[in-house]
Amino acid sequence: MSFIDHLEALRWHIIRSAIAVVVFTTIAFFAKDFLFHDLILGPSRNDFWTYRMFCKLGQMVSAEPCSDMVNFIIQNRTMSGQLSMHISTSFIVGIILTFPYLFWEIWRFVKPGLYPHERAGSRGAVFFVSVLFLLGTLFGYYIAAPLSINFLASYTVDASIENQIDLQSYISTLTTMTLSCALVFELPMIVYFLAKAGLITPEIMQMYRRHAIVVILIIAAIVTPPEITSQIIVTIPILLLYELSIYIARAVRRNATASLNAKLKETGGVAQ
């Protein structure tokens, strides 16, 4: 294909992706009651699933009745604030729902430029990227975001100050935490492609494991309340993802070595 042909193919990938985003954004926009009352504002109420699970866990440990985990008021302070947040939030939800299709369109554009062995080695990439994105989104929405909202909204420097949270600030915190976790959960796939490209090795990841643990602990401390249980809850999945990434990098090198040995077998050479 010529350069112009590549641009034409890319244009249609972009058009199809944009149409998909618009469709899901429109669906989210008209599902206003579910989108805001059940989904967006869920972590602001004490009957949210995460708070109920922590309440049951606390009762199992101390057998004491649960107190309200969240106690704040969400306010809109601008004339067009609710409308603009309705539109922007619908757009973000549309992107999240369309993500598997968006990545599939990107992959369809990139895949023809790969060598046959590269295509064979990246089989199932769309599926695994989509699954990890979904798991990260669920973890961010049900674990990381509620813990952060609960701490930030209930924190006070003086009892006389009432927390009245701006709608934009609340939604920004919720979406940032959720999308950040969704991206962090893509670590195994990122390591897989970097290992395939020879840019990272399991030895490098093992050498810097202590540094990675420190970074992970710092991230967990930033996104969670200053309470050890919450930090552990967020830290453990990220550490497991890092260890899984080391295993993936090792498996990629082992497969590459086996493939190279097969090619060198006729000449009597053996890859190390």
UniProtKB/TrEMBL annotation:
Keyword Secreted on entry: no
Which Pfam families would you find in this protein's record? TatC
Main location as per UniProt: membrane
Supply the InterPro entries for this chain: TatC
Determine if Transport is one of this entry's keywords: yes
- Topology within the bilayer: Multi-pass membrane protein
The UniProt transmembrane annotation reads 12-31, 85-104, 125-149, 169-195, 207-224, 230-249
Give the record's keywords alphabetically.
Cell membrane, Membrane, Protein transport, Translocation, Transmembrane, Transmembrane helix, Transport
Where's it found, cell-wise?
Answer: Cell membrane; Membrane
Q: What does this protein do?
A: Part of the twin-arginine translocation (Tat) system that transports large folded proteins containing a characteristic twin-arginine motif in their signal peptide across membranes.
Q: How does it assemble?
A: Forms a complex with TatA.
Annotated family? Belongs to the TatC family.
- Provide the protein name: Sec-independent protein translocase protein TatC
* Gene designation: tatC
